[in-house]
Amino acid sequence: MAANDRRSNRQLLLTSRPTGRITPGNFTLAEAPIPRLADGQALLKTLYLSIDPAMRSWMDDADGYMPRIRLGEVVRSAGIAQVAESCHPSFRSGELVYGLTGWQEFSVIDNGNESSFGKLPPDISMPVRTLTNLAGATGMAAYFGMCAIARPQPGETLVVTAAAGAVGSLAGQIGKIFGCRVTGVTSSDEKCRWLMEELGFDAAVNYKSGNWRRALEQTCPGGIDILFENAGGEASDFILTRLNSRARIVLCGLIASYHGERQARVFLAPVLMKRLRIEGFLVADYAARFDEALRRLARWTLDGRLQHRETIVDGLEQAPAALNLLFDGGNVGKLLVKTDTTADVAPVATLVEQ
Ligand SMILES: NC(=O)c1ccc[n+]([C@@H]2O[C@H](COP(=O)([O-])OP(=O)(O)OC[C@H]3O[C@@H](n4cnc5c(N)ncnc54)[C@H](OP(=O)(O)O)[C@@H]3O)[C@@H](O)[C@H]2O)c1
Prior knowledge:
Bound molecules: NADP nicotinamide-adenine-dinucleotide phosphate
Order of helices and strands: HEEEHEEEEHHEHEHEHEHEHEHEHE
Distance between the termini: 33 Å
Structural class: alpha/beta
Shape: globular
Protein backbone atom coordinates (compact mmCIF):
# COMPACT_ATOMS: atom_id res chain seq x y z
CA MET A 1 0.00 0.00 0.00
CA ALA A 2 1.06 3.54 0.67
CA ALA A 3 4.47 2.53 2.02
CA ASN A 4 5.38 1.40 -1.48
CA ASP A 5 4.01 4.52 -3.12
CA ARG A 6 6.79 6.62 -1.66
CA ARG A 7 10.48 6.03 -1.85
CA SER A 8 11.34 7.99 1.28
CA ASN A 9 10.15 8.95 4.72
CA ARG A 10 9.96 12.71 5.19
CA GLN A 11 10.86 13.74 8.73
CA LEU A 12 11.18 16.97 10.67
CA LEU A 13 14.27 16.99 12.87
CA LEU A 14 14.90 19.40 15.72
CA THR A 15 18.24 20.93 14.77
CA SER A 16 18.44 23.95 17.07
CA ARG A 17 16.69 24.84 20.28
CA PRO A 18 14.11 27.62 20.24
CA THR A 19 14.24 30.60 22.55
CA GLY A 20 10.68 31.73 23.07
CA ARG A 21 8.60 30.96 19.99
CA ILE A 22 9.79 28.28 17.62
CA THR A 23 10.94 29.36 14.15
CA PRO A 24 11.27 27.36 10.92
CA GLY A 25 15.06 27.54 11.42
CA ASN A 26 14.80 25.26 14.47
CA PHE A 27 13.90 22.33 12.21
CA THR A 28 15.32 20.50 9.20
CA LEU A 29 13.16 18.61 6.75
CA ALA A 30 15.00 15.36 6.01
CA GLU A 31 14.28 12.38 3.77
CA ALA A 32 15.22 8.99 5.17
CA PRO A 33 14.64 5.63 3.52
CA ILE A 34 11.41 3.92 4.50
CA PRO A 35 12.58 1.35 7.06
CA ARG A 36 12.76 -2.32 6.01
CA LEU A 37 11.06 -4.50 8.55
CA ALA A 38 12.71 -7.20 10.63
CA ASP A 39 10.79 -9.87 12.52
CA GLY A 40 8.85 -8.35 15.40
CA GLN A 41 8.41 -4.96 13.72
CA ALA A 42 5.51 -3.18 12.04
CA LEU A 43 5.63 -0.17 9.76
CA LEU A 44 3.24 2.66 10.63
CA LYS A 45 2.06 5.30 8.21
CA THR A 46 1.18 8.52 10.02
CA LEU A 47 -2.28 9.86 9.23
CA TYR A 48 -2.72 12.79 11.61
CA LEU A 49 -0.35 14.43 14.07
CA SER A 50 -1.74 15.72 17.33
CA ILE A 51 -0.28 19.18 17.95
CA ASP A 52 0.02 19.65 21.70
CA PRO A 53 1.30 22.61 23.75
CA ALA A 54 3.63 20.37 25.80
CA MET A 55 5.70 19.70 22.66
CA ARG A 56 7.15 23.19 22.98
CA SER A 57 8.60 22.34 26.40
CA TRP A 58 10.11 19.08 25.07
CA MET A 59 12.24 21.29 22.76
CA ASP A 60 13.86 23.13 25.68
CA ASP A 61 17.30 22.12 26.92
CA ALA A 62 15.87 20.50 30.04
CA ASP A 63 14.19 17.24 30.93
CA GLY A 64 10.66 17.41 32.29
CA TYR A 65 8.08 14.68 32.66
CA MET A 66 9.51 13.52 29.32
CA PRO A 67 13.18 13.74 28.36
CA ARG A 68 14.14 16.67 26.13
CA ILE A 69 14.14 16.00 22.37
CA ARG A 70 17.81 15.64 21.41
CA LEU A 71 19.21 17.78 18.61
CA GLY A 72 19.09 15.88 15.33
CA GLU A 73 16.16 13.73 16.50
CA VAL A 74 12.76 13.51 14.84
CA VAL A 75 10.44 15.83 16.75
CA ARG A 76 8.50 13.82 19.30
CA SER A 77 4.77 13.99 18.70
CA ALA A 78 1.69 11.94 19.21
CA GLY A 79 -0.37 10.94 16.23
CA ILE A 80 -2.66 8.38 14.69
CA ALA A 81 -1.12 5.94 12.28
CA GLN A 82 -2.18 2.94 10.28
CA VAL A 83 -0.20 -0.26 10.13
CA ALA A 84 1.15 -0.31 6.56
CA GLU A 85 3.10 -3.60 6.76
CA SER A 86 3.65 -5.97 9.63
CA CYS A 87 6.11 -8.62 10.78
CA HIS A 88 4.86 -8.08 14.35
CA PRO A 89 2.71 -10.75 16.00
CA SER A 90 0.32 -8.24 17.60
CA PHE A 91 -0.22 -5.71 14.80
CA ARG A 92 -2.02 -6.42 11.55
CA SER A 93 -1.93 -4.43 8.36
CA GLY A 94 -4.71 -1.83 8.31
CA GLU A 95 -5.08 -1.49 12.09
CA LEU A 96 -5.10 1.99 13.60
CA VAL A 97 -2.80 2.90 16.46
CA TYR A 98 -2.38 6.02 18.58
CA GLY A 99 1.04 6.85 19.94
CA LEU A 100 4.34 8.64 19.58
CA THR A 101 4.70 8.60 15.81
CA GLY A 102 6.92 11.70 15.70
CA TRP A 103 6.87 14.38 13.02
CA GLN A 104 7.45 11.92 10.19
CA GLU A 105 5.47 10.04 7.58
CA PHE A 106 6.49 6.54 8.63
CA SER A 107 7.65 5.01 11.90
CA VAL A 108 8.42 1.53 13.16
CA ILE A 109 6.90 -0.16 16.14
CA ASP A 110 8.79 -2.98 17.86
CA ASN A 111 9.30 -4.32 21.36
CA GLY A 112 11.53 -1.33 22.21
CA ASN A 113 8.74 1.24 21.85
CA GLU A 114 5.43 -0.58 21.67
CA SER A 115 4.43 0.62 25.14
CA SER A 116 4.11 4.13 23.65
CA PHE A 117 1.47 2.94 21.16
CA GLY A 118 -2.04 1.72 21.77
CA LYS A 119 -4.34 0.01 19.31
CA LEU A 120 -7.62 1.82 18.73
CA PRO A 121 -10.64 -0.32 19.47
CA PRO A 122 -11.90 -1.57 16.10
CA ASP A 123 -15.52 -1.33 17.27
CA ILE A 124 -15.49 2.46 17.56
CA SER A 125 -16.67 4.12 14.40
CA MET A 126 -15.51 7.66 13.95
CA PRO A 127 -13.54 9.56 11.39
CA VAL A 128 -9.82 9.28 12.05
CA ARG A 129 -9.60 13.00 12.82
CA THR A 130 -12.21 12.64 15.57
CA LEU A 131 -10.38 9.66 17.02
CA THR A 132 -7.15 11.68 17.06
CA ASN A 133 -9.02 14.27 19.11
CA LEU A 134 -10.82 11.99 21.54
CA ALA A 135 -8.48 9.01 21.91
CA GLY A 136 -5.29 10.90 22.63
CA ALA A 137 -4.08 13.15 25.42
CA THR A 138 -6.83 15.67 24.63
CA GLY A 139 -9.84 13.49 25.28
CA MET A 140 -8.09 11.74 28.15
CA ALA A 141 -7.13 15.02 29.88
CA ALA A 142 -10.67 16.37 29.64
CA TYR A 143 -12.20 13.10 30.82
CA PHE A 144 -9.92 12.34 33.77
CA GLY A 145 -9.53 15.99 34.78
CA MET A 146 -13.30 16.22 35.10
CA CYS A 147 -14.37 12.70 36.06
CA ALA A 148 -11.48 11.64 38.29
CA ILE A 149 -10.31 14.94 39.79
CA ALA A 150 -13.09 17.57 39.64
CA ARG A 151 -15.91 15.07 40.22
CA PRO A 152 -18.52 17.74 39.52
CA GLN A 153 -21.85 17.85 41.28
CA PRO A 154 -25.06 19.13 39.71
CA GLY A 155 -25.49 22.86 40.26
CA GLU A 156 -21.81 23.60 40.79
CA THR A 157 -20.14 26.43 38.87
CA LEU A 158 -17.23 25.42 36.65
CA VAL A 159 -14.86 27.84 34.93
CA VAL A 160 -12.62 26.54 32.15
CA THR A 161 -9.62 28.47 30.80
CA ALA A 162 -8.48 28.06 27.17
CA ALA A 163 -12.08 26.91 26.88
CA ALA A 164 -12.30 26.98 23.09
CA GLY A 165 -9.22 24.81 22.73
CA ALA A 166 -9.05 21.06 22.49
CA VAL A 167 -9.11 20.00 26.14
CA GLY A 168 -11.11 22.99 27.36
CA SER A 169 -13.97 22.58 24.90
CA LEU A 170 -14.43 18.94 25.94
CA ALA A 171 -13.95 19.60 29.67
CA GLY A 172 -16.63 22.30 29.71
CA GLN A 173 -19.10 20.06 27.92
CA ILE A 174 -18.39 17.23 30.37
CA GLY A 175 -19.21 19.75 33.10
CA LYS A 176 -22.58 20.36 31.40
CA ILE A 177 -23.22 16.62 31.16
CA PHE A 178 -22.74 16.45 34.95
CA GLY A 179 -25.15 19.34 35.52
CA CYS A 180 -22.72 22.20 36.17
CA ARG A 181 -23.16 25.81 35.26
CA VAL A 182 -20.19 26.42 32.94
CA THR A 183 -18.29 29.58 32.00
CA GLY A 184 -15.57 29.39 29.36
CA VAL A 185 -12.72 31.87 29.15
CA THR A 186 -11.18 32.48 25.74
CA SER A 187 -9.62 35.15 23.53
CA SER A 188 -12.31 36.28 21.07
CA ASP A 189 -16.01 37.02 20.77
CA GLU A 190 -16.26 34.51 17.94
CA LYS A 191 -14.88 31.73 20.15
CA CYS A 192 -17.26 32.84 22.93
CA ARG A 193 -20.20 32.47 20.53
CA TRP A 194 -19.05 28.98 19.53
CA LEU A 195 -18.87 27.92 23.18
CA MET A 196 -22.35 29.19 24.00
CA GLU A 197 -24.27 28.63 20.76
CA GLU A 198 -22.84 25.29 19.67
CA LEU A 199 -21.36 23.67 22.76
CA GLY A 200 -23.99 24.77 25.26
CA PHE A 201 -21.76 26.63 27.72
CA ASP A 202 -23.87 28.89 29.93
CA ALA A 203 -21.50 31.82 29.49
CA ALA A 204 -18.23 32.73 27.88
CA VAL A 205 -15.87 35.61 28.54
CA ASN A 206 -13.36 37.15 26.16
CA TYR A 207 -10.31 37.84 28.34
CA LYS A 208 -9.01 40.27 25.71
CA SER A 209 -12.08 42.50 25.96
CA GLY A 210 -11.96 45.66 28.10
CA ASN A 211 -14.41 44.61 30.79
CA TRP A 212 -13.58 40.92 31.18
CA ARG A 213 -13.15 40.90 34.97
CA ARG A 214 -16.60 42.36 35.53
CA ALA A 215 -18.10 40.09 32.85
CA LEU A 216 -16.55 37.06 34.49
CA GLU A 217 -17.89 38.00 37.89
CA GLN A 218 -21.36 38.47 36.45
CA THR A 219 -21.33 34.99 34.93
CA CYS A 220 -20.54 33.42 38.31
CA PRO A 221 -22.74 35.28 40.81
CA GLY A 222 -22.42 32.50 43.38
CA GLY A 223 -18.63 32.21 43.01
CA ILE A 224 -16.70 29.37 41.43
CA ASP A 225 -16.62 25.77 42.66
CA ILE A 226 -14.27 24.25 40.06
CA LEU A 227 -11.52 25.81 37.96
CA PHE A 228 -10.33 23.64 35.08
CA GLU A 229 -6.99 25.31 34.47
CA ASN A 230 -5.35 25.08 31.07
CA ALA A 231 -3.72 28.49 30.80
CA GLY A 232 -2.27 30.05 33.96
CA GLY A 233 -2.46 33.53 32.44
CA GLU A 234 -3.71 36.85 33.74
CA ALA A 235 -7.33 35.70 33.67
CA SER A 236 -6.41 32.75 35.87
CA ASP A 237 -4.87 35.07 38.47
CA PHE A 238 -8.25 36.79 38.72
CA ILE A 239 -10.33 33.60 38.70
CA LEU A 240 -8.30 32.28 41.64
CA THR A 241 -9.56 35.21 43.71
CA ARG A 242 -13.19 34.28 42.99
CA LEU A 243 -13.13 30.67 44.13
CA ASN A 244 -15.58 29.49 46.77
CA SER A 245 -14.58 27.70 49.95
CA ARG A 246 -13.56 24.11 49.23
CA ALA A 247 -13.31 24.83 45.51
CA ARG A 248 -11.21 22.46 43.40
CA ILE A 249 -8.57 23.49 40.90
CA VAL A 250 -7.90 20.88 38.25
CA LEU A 251 -4.39 21.78 37.11
CA CYS A 252 -4.29 20.43 33.58
CA GLY A 253 -1.88 22.86 31.93
CA LEU A 254 -0.23 26.28 32.07
CA ILE A 255 0.25 27.25 28.45
CA ALA A 256 0.93 30.90 29.30
CA SER A 257 4.26 29.86 30.81
CA TYR A 258 5.52 27.40 28.16
CA HIS A 259 7.67 30.02 26.42
CA GLY A 260 9.30 30.84 29.73
CA GLU A 261 8.24 34.47 29.90
CA ARG A 262 5.65 34.05 32.65
CA GLN A 263 5.53 31.96 35.78
CA ALA A 264 2.10 30.82 36.90
CA ARG A 265 1.12 32.14 40.30
CA VAL A 266 -0.85 30.53 43.07
CA PHE A 267 -2.01 32.61 45.98
CA LEU A 268 -1.38 30.41 48.99
CA ALA A 269 -3.37 32.43 51.54
CA PRO A 270 -6.72 31.70 49.82
CA VAL A 271 -5.70 28.04 49.51
CA LEU A 272 -5.47 27.99 53.30
CA MET A 273 -8.40 30.25 54.17
CA LYS A 274 -10.79 28.75 51.65
CA ARG A 275 -9.49 25.16 52.05
CA LEU A 276 -8.94 24.86 48.30
CA ARG A 277 -7.82 21.62 46.69
CA ILE A 278 -5.36 21.84 43.79
CA GLU A 279 -4.50 18.68 41.91
CA GLY A 280 -2.17 18.45 38.96
CA PHE A 281 -2.22 15.38 36.75
CA LEU A 282 -0.77 13.84 33.62
CA VAL A 283 -2.97 11.67 31.45
CA ALA A 284 -0.38 8.88 31.66
CA ASP A 285 -1.44 8.48 35.31
CA TYR A 286 -4.69 7.01 34.01
CA ALA A 287 -3.34 4.80 31.22
CA ALA A 288 -5.03 1.70 32.62
CA ARG A 289 -8.43 3.40 32.15
CA PHE A 290 -8.00 4.84 28.62
CA ASP A 291 -10.36 2.31 27.07
CA GLU A 292 -13.13 3.17 29.55
CA ALA A 293 -12.63 6.89 28.85
CA LEU A 294 -12.66 6.54 25.08
CA ARG A 295 -15.83 4.45 25.14
CA ARG A 296 -17.58 7.00 27.33
CA LEU A 297 -16.42 9.94 25.21
CA ALA A 298 -17.50 8.09 22.08
CA ARG A 299 -20.90 7.32 23.58
CA TRP A 300 -21.47 10.97 24.52
CA THR A 301 -20.34 12.02 21.04
CA LEU A 302 -22.67 9.63 19.27
CA ASP A 303 -25.53 10.68 21.53
CA GLY A 304 -24.91 14.30 20.51
CA ARG A 305 -24.00 15.37 24.05
CA LEU A 306 -20.35 16.05 23.23
CA GLN A 307 -19.55 18.23 20.24
CA HIS A 308 -16.06 18.40 18.87
CA ARG A 309 -14.21 20.42 16.31
CA GLU A 310 -10.83 19.99 14.69
CA THR A 311 -8.64 22.68 13.15
CA ILE A 312 -6.66 20.89 10.44
CA VAL A 313 -3.41 22.06 8.94
CA ASP A 314 -2.30 20.22 5.80
CA GLY A 315 1.18 18.80 5.35
CA LEU A 316 4.00 17.60 7.58
CA GLU A 317 6.15 20.59 6.67
CA GLN A 318 3.53 22.90 8.24
CA ALA A 319 3.85 21.28 11.69
CA PRO A 320 6.12 23.98 13.20
CA ALA A 321 3.79 26.77 12.08
CA ALA A 322 0.89 24.75 13.44
CA LEU A 323 2.52 24.45 16.86
CA ASN A 324 2.82 28.24 17.04
CA LEU A 325 -0.91 28.57 16.33
CA LEU A 326 -1.61 27.12 19.79
CA PHE A 327 0.23 30.00 21.40
CA ASP A 328 -1.58 32.57 19.24
CA GLY A 329 -5.03 31.15 19.93
CA GLY A 330 -5.19 30.31 16.22
CA ASN A 331 -7.03 27.04 16.75
CA VAL A 332 -10.61 26.21 17.62
CA GLY A 333 -10.96 22.78 19.19
CA LYS A 334 -8.26 20.22 18.47
CA LEU A 335 -5.31 21.22 16.31
CA LEU A 336 -4.14 18.47 13.95
CA VAL A 337 -1.68 18.21 11.11
CA LYS A 338 -2.82 15.93 8.33
CA THR A 339 0.19 14.11 6.96
CA ASP A 340 -1.57 11.79 4.56
CA THR A 341 -4.08 12.95 1.98
CA THR A 342 -5.84 9.60 2.14
CA ALA A 343 -6.28 9.86 5.92
CA ASP A 344 -9.99 10.56 5.83
CA VAL A 345 -10.76 7.45 3.87
CA ALA A 346 -8.68 5.16 6.05
CA PRO A 347 -10.90 2.38 7.32
CA VAL A 348 -12.47 2.68 10.70
CA ALA A 349 -14.93 0.38 12.29
CA THR A 350 -18.39 0.53 13.71
CA LEU A 351 -19.42 1.58 17.17
CA VAL A 352 -19.45 0.70 20.33
CA GLU A 353 -22.38 -0.98 21.91
CA GLN A 354 -21.23 -2.66 25.12
N1 LIG B 1 -2.11 17.25 32.09
C1 LIG B 1 -2.10 16.58 30.94
O1 LIG B 1 -1.84 15.38 30.85
C2 LIG B 1 -2.43 17.35 29.69
C3 LIG B 1 -2.78 16.70 28.49
C4 LIG B 1 -3.12 17.46 27.37
C5 LIG B 1 -3.07 18.85 27.45
N2 LIG B 1 -2.67 19.44 28.62
C6 LIG B 1 -2.64 20.90 28.75
O2 LIG B 1 -3.94 21.38 28.52
C7 LIG B 1 -3.86 22.71 28.02
C8 LIG B 1 -4.68 22.80 26.74
O3 LIG B 1 -4.05 21.97 25.77
P1 LIG B 1 -4.74 21.77 24.34
O4 LIG B 1 -4.00 20.72 23.65
O5 LIG B 1 -6.19 21.62 24.56
O6 LIG B 1 -4.45 23.16 23.63
P2 LIG B 1 -5.56 24.15 23.09
O7 LIG B 1 -6.32 24.63 24.28
O8 LIG B 1 -6.26 23.56 21.96
O9 LIG B 1 -4.67 25.34 22.53
C9 LIG B 1 -4.05 26.21 23.35
C10 LIG B 1 -4.96 27.42 23.66
O10 LIG B 1 -4.39 28.10 24.78
C11 LIG B 1 -4.78 29.44 24.72
N3 LIG B 1 -3.59 30.26 25.04
C12 LIG B 1 -2.44 30.31 24.35
N4 LIG B 1 -1.57 31.15 24.97
C13 LIG B 1 -2.23 31.65 26.05
C14 LIG B 1 -1.90 32.57 27.08
N5 LIG B 1 -0.70 33.17 27.12
N6 LIG B 1 -2.82 32.85 28.04
C15 LIG B 1 -4.03 32.26 28.01
N7 LIG B 1 -4.41 31.37 27.06
C16 LIG B 1 -3.53 31.07 26.10
C17 LIG B 1 -5.30 29.72 23.32
O11 LIG B 1 -6.71 29.84 23.42
P3 LIG B 1 -7.43 31.27 23.56
O12 LIG B 1 -7.73 31.69 22.15
O13 LIG B 1 -8.62 30.98 24.37
O14 LIG B 1 -6.44 32.19 24.25
C18 LIG B 1 -4.99 28.45 22.55
O15 LIG B 1 -5.96 28.15 21.58
C19 LIG B 1 -2.37 23.01 27.81
O16 LIG B 1 -1.90 23.74 28.92
C20 LIG B 1 -1.76 21.62 27.77
O17 LIG B 1 -0.41 21.62 28.14
C21 LIG B 1 -2.36 18.72 29.73
